[in-house]
Please model this.
Amino acid sequence: MVSLDNEQTLTSALSMPQHGAHRLLALTILWHPDLARIGEQFIAGPGMPELALNRYAPAFCHPGKEPLPLGERCIAREPLLLQAGAVGGLTLRPPASRMLVTLDGVPLAAPLAIDAARLDGGLVLELGGAVLLCVHWAQGLPKLEQYGELIGVSSGMRKVRELIRQVAATELPVLLLGETGTGKELAARAIHATSLHRDGPLVAVNMAALNDTLAAADLFGAAKGAYTGAERLRDGFFAEAAGGTLFLDEIGNAPVAVQPMLLRVLDGGEYRPLGAARSMQSRARLLAATDQDLASTNFNQPLLRRLESFVIELPALRARREDIGLLTAHAMLAWNAAAGVQVSLPVALVRDICCHEWPGNVRQLRNVVGRALLALQSGVAPLLSSLVPVVACAEDAAAAPRRSDLAGIEPGAVLDAMDANAWQIRAAALALGVSRPSMYKLLAAHPLIREAAAIPFDELRLALAAEQGDVERCAGVLRTPCEALRRHLRSQGLMG
Model:
């Protein structure tokens, strides 16, 4: 028997495993001809050991919305049976019909026992070539909630949103952890938007891009004459973020010299601009993010303890497979809106997308969807295998082979990599197969590559004018990294 609870979430008769009684078996719609239904869920509760899945049952819904069955004519009346197995496993029994059923892309023609480990990763069911479902475990019932672009119905994303709700109204520093592409900056923006500082600015700083010599001036500002070339009073990022939020991305790559200074700000709220006679009080909320294990590096451990006042870990996409359909639909609709077209992804491609492990996480997924839609717009039917390798190399630093012997990289190769990648450090590092910190060492040692702050003001002005304000071309002419050049141009009043 099926019943409706007071949160508009259906429960059914499938029993929960004895070893994980806090977990509920769930079905999430990954893809449906009616895109509005993507992300709807059915949550099973304790009771009888079997669930029948067909055109008319069970009923799926978004929290607070009317429950509806899948309802597509391509889905048979005869049910696909999901039967609880031993030790948290599951047995799938295909229907007595001609309906196409695939499990993780493989046709399901006979009963199949699934062990607990495979079920933990989420299963992708394809029904009738039109509807995709994820079979997975859920921890608790869905809730009505919205935090900007932090999209997802998974238990992992519900936990992230709950932690954001808890910490947003406090003044605690927050450390956001997660692999590259998991959405750490989106989480930072959500914290800012719901905090007491929401009416102030959100200033995001890539700590890996700070120059060791000028990092203190970039962060805390500098008095006139504090260093060679400091011809005017310079505000730092802390002053720029006053009354708002300062987001220090890639905090693990913060220059060693500024780490104790950051600890002082966190401890007492004070900082002193370079060359200034007195200290200033910070009025910015501090957030930080990293994809590194800071406890096992040379990172300042007292600073880490302060940053760990409140920790939010963003789950990897492979740990939230039930969200892939929603994220794919969101990326598709955004791309169509930007391009002014209506291009749809074929179900077979979406199925492969949902089965993929996504080492580059949400960012990689979004870029793959964009490439697929571009190909479809051009009349080409893309396969995931033709889309993922290129993007993986561009997006996932772990995918690039790492070189440990920097001495073996010739200066000419460094210059070629920077030229070929629009003087963007991250992209050039991937091309050379080195980490970003190693890339900074190569740049600092290169005889022809310059620090933006060391380039005379008039040369900056003339180069920017000659390139009609194009910073990437200007970086190539001046032979200096693009991000640092953009920041320096702003600090010198040459860019808005």
Q: What stands out?
A: Residues 1-21, 390-404 have pLDDT under 50 and may be disordered.
